[in-house]
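Input/output pair, single chain:
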Amino acid sequence: MTKKELYQQVINYFRQAMPVAETELHYESPFQLLVAVVLSAQCTDKRVNMITPRLFSDYPTAEALSLASPEVIYDYVRSVSYPNSKARHLVAMARMLTQDFGGEVPSSGEELERLPGVGRKTANVIQAVIFQKAKMAVDTHVFRVSHRIGLVPKSCTTPLAVEKELTRNLPSDIIPTAHHWLILHGRYVCTARKPKCEQCGLLPFCKRLL
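Output:
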């Protein structure tokens, strides 16, 4: 099977098995998604969704959050991983959004990565989800699943290398959706320690078992 054929088989499977694929983070605006994605670093979406309702109720916009102190925001986010640094980043991010971008979330990766607490992965999530750009955010799930089903070679040892390989081989119009396909498949089926192989329609391509 050629690489092109493999990609098409995988796309066909996900289109049938997961016709609707989207982020599991709860949000009502681009700003709120940005906050949620920053909080989700090395933390589960479930945990983030538990704390953001109160945070978003009290600080629904960048302008509102920019007026808070990191110490106050810490109380809202204390149950996530690295709460001290995330509280500082969120307040600094909100202040930069307010001062430099009129309170709006920018659409370019370069501008997004200027924001405190925002790296390439977070910037790619925002560009893909909010602006439907052909950007592939590579987290641990995307990294693992891509290798197991052979979408990327073993030589792709970094998230950036995986991102470039996937972006090069996936049709640009489905990359935002493919990002969620791979994340959700890794989260619920192709798990790290005990993958549910009996539920997986991609088993014939799994490098873990070959």
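The radius of gyration is 18 Å. Residues 132 and 176 are 6 Å apart (CA to CA).
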